[in-house]
Amino acid sequence: MLRTISVCFLLLGSCCAQQAGPSPSPSAVDLVKQGEKLNSEGKQDEAIALYRQAYELAPQSYELHLAWGIALDLKGEYASARYHLSQALDSAPIEARTRVLQATAISYAFEGKSDEAARFEAQIFSVRSGNSDFNGAAETADEAGRVCLESGDPACAAKWYKVGYDTALQNPKLSDADKSLWLFRWENAQARIAARAGQPEDAQKHIAAAKLALDKANNPGQLRFYPYLTGYVAFYTGDYKTAITDLQKGDQRDPMVLALLGEACEKLGNQKEAQDYYRKVLSSNAHNPANAWARPLARKKLGG
Cα(82)–Cα(118) distance, rounded to whole angstroms? Predict the structure, then answer.
C-alpha cells in the first residue's frame, strides 16, 4: 500500500514538472527595467550588459535606447550615448518624444554644449507652450537657462530664465503664492547670473528680492533652495568660507551643492575634504542639469 502511494506521488510530481516546464526567459521590457535599477545603483556596466541582451530581442525599442543612452552619459561616453538617444528619438511614439528630447538636451549638458542642449529644450518648450502648458513650458525654459549658466554662458541663461518667468505668468490660474514662487525663481536666477558675471552688488540685491518672494510664497518645499542660492553667490564672488557655511545648510543629496562644496574646500586648501565631496557627487546617478555639471567635474577632480 505504502509503495503504491509513493509511486503515485512520484508520478504526480513528474507530471507537474512536465506541465510547469522551464521558467520563461526575461523579455526586453524586463531586461530594461532591471538595467534601469542597476543604473540607479551606479552599476552602469552591468546595466549596459542587460541592454545588450535586450537589443537582441527588441532592437527598435525606444525605452531600451533611452535607458542605454542615459547609462552611457553617466559613464562619460557621450558620443555613444547620443547615438542611442537618437535611436530612441527615431522610434519614440509622439507621447514619449518630450522625454527623449529632454534626455538628449541633458546629454549635451554633460559636455557643456549649451547651444546644442538649448536646441532640444526649445523643441520641448514649443510643444508645451503650444498646448497651453504654461507651467511645463516655463520649467523647460528654466532648465535651458540653468544649462546655459553652468556651461558658462550667462547671456543665454538670462534670456531663457526671462522666457521662463514670462511664460509662467501667462497661466490665468496662477495663485498669488505661485506668482511669488516664480518671482523667487526669477530673482534667484538673476542673482546667480550676476555672481557669474562678476557683479556682487547686483547679486546681493537679487538675493534680497528672492528672499522676500520666497517668504510670500509660503512654500516650505522651496526653502532648501535659499542656502543653495546664497552659497552659490558666495562661491562665485570669492567668499569661500560663507559658501561652505551656506551650502552645508542646503540639500546634501544635490550633486550641485556637493560639487560646489568640494570646490570651495579646495579653494581654501582643504584637499581631503574636497575629495570627499567629489566622491559623494559620484554616488548620484541622476540624469539632470545638476548632475550634468557636477559629475564630469567630480570625475575630473578625482582623476577619473
Answer: 15
Length of the chain as a residue count: 304
- Over residues 214-225, the pLDDT tens digits come to 999 999 999 999
Cα–Cα dist 152/193, whole Å? 10
247, 264 contact by CB (below 8 A):
yes
| Cell numbers given for 101 | 528630447
Q: Is 196 helix (H, G, I), strand (E, B) or coil?
A: helix
First to last CA, the chain: 72
Domain end among 75, 92, 109: 92
Burial 134-164 (b: 16+ CB within 10 A, else e): bbbbbbbbbbbbbbbbbbebbebbbbbbebb
- CATH number of the domain enclosing 288: 1.25.40.10
The pTM assigned to this predicted structure is: 0.89
Tell which residue, 94, 19, 97, 103, has the closest CA to residue 67. 103
Give the range of the structural domain holding residue 57, as residue numbers without chain letter. Answer: 28-92
DSSP per-residue codes, 97-162: HHHHHHHHHHHHHHTT-HHHHHHHHHHHHHHHHHTT-HHHHHHHHHHHHHHHHHTT-HHHHHHHHH
